[in-house]
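So, can you check what follows?
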Amino acid sequence: MSEKPQPYKVRVIHVVARGSDVLVREYTLDPGEAIPWHRHSNVADYYYGLEGTVLVETRNPPARHEVGAGGFAKVTPPTVHHVSNASKKPCRFLLIQGVGRYDFVKAAD
């Protein structure tokens, strides 16, 4: 299976598990790093905080979730969302995406 390049750059993305309808990755974002505004057509995003605080924002409905260690946030399709580290320390989180075909549809900033 060929990997498409990520449409954004963050410190580390480690693939934990990949199936035909689920994708599990561990992310590390340095201070100021972000995953740009985007949406998914079919899969929901489940964010689980591991270290530091990751900020998950949505547009419609507008929401802001600060996910710390042990915290959780969910974004359902086709909600446009943005993920960032606004703190002064790295943050780590687990992202589970499924169930369905994964895509990344960039949205306007």
About this structure: The chain is about 0% helix and 55% strand.
